[in-house]
Amino acid sequence: ACLIARLADHSLTQGSVRVELDAIAAAVQDELRASTTSSSPSSVSLLRVIQAVNHVLYTKLNFRGNEDDYYDPRNSYINQVLKRKLGNPITISVVYMAVAARVGATVQAVNSPGHLLLKAEVARPDMQADTVFVDAFSSGRVMTRLEAAEFLTVRLPGDLDDDALTRMMTILSTPMTPTKIYSRMLHNLVHACARGGDQAAAVVFSEALSALELAAATVHDTANGSS
User: Fold this and answer.
1) What does the alpha-carbon distance between residue 226 and residue 221 come to, in Å, rounded to a whole number?
2) Which end of the chain is more exposed for a tag (fewer CB within 10 A), N or C?
3) Closest CA to 53 of 67, 66, 63
4) What pLDDT does 100 receive?
5) How confident is the model at residue 122 (pLDDT cuts 50, 70, 90)?
6) Cα 146–151–155 angle (5° rounding)?
């Protein structure tokens, strides 16, 4: 995410982004300690971790999805999202995942069409697993798998067949790879810059997307023994 943002701001460093993410995570740690007797956030229930991240990001720091200017390219730059507290679904989700990881929670993106969601599973003390889906764009709204599938299905364009909800449930079971996340970010930027009339920037991000896809294909072929 930092490398993508550096295509627009060459002065950006990964260190500066890490410092900001570390500070947010520290605030979440404080929130967890203040509300539980456990000294380890990893032993806290999934719901409590999500609640703490949501409280810090959306209540204390006022992060929010940029509904008023959805296609502003700055919504895709992680440094600008951290600065402005505004972003699109995927970049706010990247921030959310980074903060959650710093407090010991595994949160993954799922390749949901049209609106990216997060999937979180944290083991409880009874060794069972909680699974919820989080809409980072909408103040961290928490949904069950069925609620998430219904939310995404009604957003699909065109007429829906009887199997649409079932297919969406399947999509929600598969986490996105980092390459898929970055590819989707670059697709968003190509579209946003072209829409805003900045063709030069659109070309830069399009070339970066092509390079990423070529690298991913090369790694895939090598892993499968192709020449």
Assistant:
1) 5
2) C
3) 63
4) 94
5) low
6) 140
pTM above 0.70? yes
Residue 129's DSSP bridge partners are 123
Q: What pLDDT is attached to residue 222?
A: 47
Helices (H) and strands (E) in the chain, counts: 9, 6
The band of 98, judged by pLDDT with boundaries at 50, 70 and 90, is very high
Q: Give the angle 176-182-186 at the CA atoms, nearest 5°.
A: 130
For residue 117, what are the β-bridge partners? 110
CA angle 38, 39, 44 (to 5 degrees): 50
Sign for the CA dihedral angle at 126, 132, 134, 140 comes to negative
Q: Is 87 within 8 Å of 81 (Cβ atoms)?
A: yes
Query: 62: buried, middle or exposed (CB in 10 Å: 19+, 13-18, 0-12)?
Result: exposed
